[in-house]
Amino acid sequence: MPMVLMYHSVEPYEADPYLVTVSPPRFAQQMHWLARRGLRGTSVRDLLAARAAGAGKGLVGLTFDDGYADFARHALPVLQRFGFGATVFVIAGRLGGDNAWDPEGPRKPLMGARQVRDLAQAGIEIGSHGLRHIRLPAARDVLAEEVGGSRRILQEVTGKPVSGFCYPYGDLDTDAVARVRDTGYDYGCAIWPSASTSRHALPRTYIGEADTAPRLWAKRARHQLAWMPRRAGKSRRAA
Question: pTM higher than 0.70, yes or no?
């Protein structure tokens, strides 16, 4: 299972009740930590392609949910400094809006269509985060538009294929995963491991402001232990 880090917003802040914001200095430290370990951040699209070609060693997926406008100001320059790529999951029906789904948090502007197009031209992968940022298992009547309609909008905006989907809130079920797969997405990103874990429901590792070097070490080690290949055959031979 590839290691994919989950970010949201990168900007200076005072209040962050939903723990979705990382300050620019902390983000730069985290990217420096990856580089010093010989790891390279990349988009999920490129990560999966490299692994399929047997060249995925040392690659870590970097994802940014919701499409916050602060990505271009604070995250992109750091990524470019280290030669890293990333995937930004954009809410197609809220372009130019804000994070109204977080009523207790500060209002954070979302990227408009031009900003999304500029990022795609700069080499950042644009993926879909649905149409309105709603929980898909409770949205069966509009599931086709949330999954397929959002993809069509983003492909029109960017002029590029949209191959990745990210489940809002990490909330999914078998119907949602099947819809993402059958719509033609190459992969989907979840948050937690589940019975649906697969290429279309990849678990990710949450990264926040509190993640200094020791916590990054621990999270990487936890991922490696959780997905270490089982060596049952060797164990049986040894017995």
Answer: yes
Q: How confident is the model at residue 228 (pLDDT cuts 50, 70, 90)?
A: confident
Structure tokens at 93: 């029906």
DSSP 216: H
Phi, psi of 230 (to 5 degrees): -70, 135
Distance CA 229, CA 43 (A): 24
As given in the structure block, the two tokens for residue 142 are 């509009």
Residue 129's contacts (CB-CB under 8 Å, 6 or more residues apart) are 65, 66, 67, 89, 90, 91, 92, 150, 165, 166, 168
Residue for token pair 């790891």? 39
Name the DSSP letter for residue 38: T
For residue 58, what is the DSSP state?
T
Reported in sequence order, the residue ranges of 132-229 that DSSP labels E, i.e. its strands, are 164-166, 187-189, 205-206
CB 6 within 8 Å of CB 204? yes
> For residue 197, what pLDDT band results from cuts at 50, 70 and 90?
very high
pLDDT, one tens digit per residue, over 69-79 is 999 999 999 99
Tally: H helices and E strands in the chain: 10, 10
Collapsed DSSP state (helix, strand, coil) of residue 213? helix
pLDDT of residue 230: 54
Minimal CA–CA distance to 11: which of 96, 118, 106? 106
What pLDDT score does 131 carry?
97
| Locus of tokens 């999304």 | 116
